[in-house]
Design brief:
mainly alpha, Helix Hairpins, 13 helices, 73% helix, 0% strand, globular, EC 3.6.1.8, ATP diphosphatase activity, NTP-PPase_MazG-like_N
Length: 273
């Protein structure tokens, strides 16, 4: 039998976060909950959490604000889901998560919530932020410079974070040209690689240095690659549209023709600004 108060909250359109937390609790109820939700654990839900974060980023990139509202809700639900599973194990609950985040933000912004002056440059605030995070890592007994960079991050993002950590202690190329020279060197090593394992290793080295170049140029490599993906999708769509006007499909064409259609699409985009 369900609690009438619980039902009232679940069906309250203005119930806000308490409503969402109660819905999650009911979904995981061992007797009356959803079988699929009950089967899940942290590991099975983690991929959905990552996917929802990317969908948030996609909505922002497209400036799809109505979609962003929904995607942020989906991402919030992932936090609620993980917190509910943790609560069932007696580890922590959603309120602990929120309070931990609040404590962290207060501690990391002494110039807003403490006695420090707000009269700082963005660079000084960044340096202070990194010093505070370094102290937090020390409290966690993380001894190495690279300790604490999450292994579950997308590889390109993790590469940049690893490089930033190393750069803080002086392990970095001082000039961007030196990074570009290293890219040329790694590309040549990839060209000379013969067996599949060696090629994969050298390809990884090349990607790693490309991520480093992005860092030196103050470019987000994930955002840059998403932009390139969007461009490729748009221009290949133009190829398909051009062929469709002739009653044809890409498989009815050849590389030379599609390459010419690609160049035409590229020229149109440049002409349109």
């Amino acid at each position: 039998m369900t609690d009438p108060k619980s039902d009232d909250l679940i069906h309250d359109p203005d119930g806000g976060l308490p409503r969402l937390l109660e819905i999650m609790r009911r979904l995981r109820d061992p007797e009356t909950g959803c079988p699929w939700d009950l089967e899940q654990d942290f590991a099975s839900i983690a991929p959905y959490t990552i996917e929802e974060a990317y969908e948030v980023a996609d909505a922002i990139e497209r400036e799809a604000w109505d979609e962003l509202r929904r995607e942020l809700g989906d991402l919030l639900f992932q936090s609620v889901f993980h917190a509910q599973m943790a609560s069932e194990r007696g580890l922590f609950d959603f309120h602990d998560v929120a309070n931990t985040m609040a404590d962290k933000m207060v501690a990391r912004h002494p110039h807003v919530f403490g006695d420090e002056s707000r009269d700082k440059s963005a660079e000084q605030q960044t340096a202070d932020w990194e010093a505070i995070k370094a102290a937090e890592r020390a409290d966690k007994a993380q001894k190495g410079v690279l300790d604490g960079v999450a292994h579950g991050l997308p590889a390109l993002m993790r590469a940049v974070k690893l490089q930033k950590r190393a750069a803080r202690v002086g392990f970095d190329w001082p000039e961007t040209d030196q990074v570009i020279d290293k890219i040329v060197e790694e590309a040549q090593e990839l060209r000379e690689a013969t067996d599949p394992d060696h090629r994969e290793e050298e390809f990884g080295d090349l990607l790693f240095v490309m991520a480093n170049l992005a860092r030196h140029l103050d470019i987000d490599p994930e955002a840059a690659l998403r932009r390139a993906n969007a461009k490729f999708t748009r221009r290949f769509g133009a190829i398909e549209a051009a062929l469709a006007r002739q009653g044809r499909r890409p498989e009815d064409s050849d590389h030379a023709e599609m390459d010419a259609l690609w160049d035409a699409a590229k020229m149109r985009e440049k002409a349109e600004g």
